[in-house]
Amino acid sequence: MGSQVDRCGLPGRPGDDDVGNILAIDAACCLDPRSRVLPRNSVGGPLATARWLGPDTLAVTFPSGVRVFRQALVQRGVHIVYAIIE
Length: 86
Prior knowledge:
Layout: E1 2-6, E2 21-26, E3 49-54, E4 57-63, E5 67-71, E6 74-75, E7 78-85
Parallel strand pairs: 4-7
Antiparallel strand pairs: 1-2, 2-5, 3-4, 6-7
């Protein structure tokens, strides 16, 4: 299962190369029952949260030990900062 943080709520219109997700992660690395338990969202993917720190800064948190496929730092003028939860 995977999780994404989408660009919904970001100002402006998406560009031609804007795929929409600012973060894409999955927990395939943690399918082994001996691995630690990750916080999960309602569909079974790793839990990721986002909150606005200001008009142009978004803070995103997600658990350590996940595979990261996409992690944007800036999208459409919004700076994204990340925190990994141990």
